[in-house]
Design a protein that fits this description.
Layout (H helix, E strand, L loop, with lengths): L1 H21 L4 H28 L3 H20 L9 H32 L1 H28 L4 H23 L5 H28 L4 H22 L2
Helix pairs in contact: 1-5, 1-6, 2-5, 2-7, 2-8, 3-7, 4-5, 4-6, 4-7, 5-6
């Protein structure tokens, strides 16, 4: 099951990239919904699982903040969101940006593998969040290459690299046995990753140059959907 859903993550990344090339005007709504869904997984599924596995350990729960900061550093150090469009920076931004996104996707694969090690229901919910993130990553890859002056062939080549990256994380995480205590810390770190992705990355990007009313509705809809899915999975 875990390898089937990781393959699906690869396909979704492709779809995100091709969607960017064809439907640019609706991306803000997709990103708004994606932000809400990813935040929903973090707050309604990963956080409760951290509390359960750790027995309410403050140290484990506090690791969510560590994950948030680590992901923020990875994101900011590669200046993915820089608006400096000087031609001399285009190539460097493209290469470093793609490298950063590939690292992010390996982390996505780790999240899938570790979540399936806890339970199939948690694995499927984390996979849903990763699929949504993969779609937005496909958007980011193509947008980054196009802004850097690359053509369709270059965009597809980088898209393939980004799409395959989660398999590395899945294979490593799925075959490494980990106890509940350590798993609670790992899931806490990934919870921090997802909070950063939703609140500090996708949500601001969805509001950029667009009215906030409908993007806010889309975000709330994404969170409500994941709340409903997480509650159904516990029945």
């Amino acid at each position: 099951m875990v390898f089937i859903v990781s393959a699906l993550a690869c396909v979704i990344t492709y779809l995100g990239g091709f969607f960017t090339l064809r439907f640019k005007d609706q991306l803000h709504l997709i990103l708004g919904f994606s932000a809400g869904a990813i935040l929903g997984v973090a707050f309604f599924e990963l956080l409760p699982e951290v509390v359960r596995l750790s027995g309410g350990s403050i140290n484990a729960i506090s690791s969510i903040g560590f994950g948030f900061v680590v992901y923020a550093i990875l994101d900011r150090m590669f200046v993915l969101h820089s608006h400096d469009d000087c031609e001399e920076h285009h190539h460097r931004r493209t290469i470093l940006g793609v490298a950063s996104l590939v690292v992010h996707r390996i982390f996505d694969g780790l999240a899938i593998g570790f979540a399936f090690n806890v339970s199939e229901s948690l694995g499927l919910l984390v996979t849903l969040a990763v699929l949504i993130h993969g779609f937005s990553d496909g958007i980011n890859i193509v947008s980054l290459v196009v802004r850097g002056g690359g053509g369709r062939v270059s965009a597809i080549r980088y898209l393939i690299i980004d799409a395959v990256a989660p398999f590395v994380g899945v294979v490593f995480a799925y075959f490494v046995p980990i106890g509940d205590s350590l798993m609670s810390y790992i899931l806490a770190v990934f919870c921090g990753f997802f909070i950063y992705l939703g609140a500090a990355d996708l949500l601001p990007e969805s509001h950029h140059s667009h009215p906030t009313r409908w993007t806010t509705v889309a975000t709330v809809a994404g969170m409500l959907l994941l709340y409903a899915v997480s509650r159904i999975s516990t029945i």
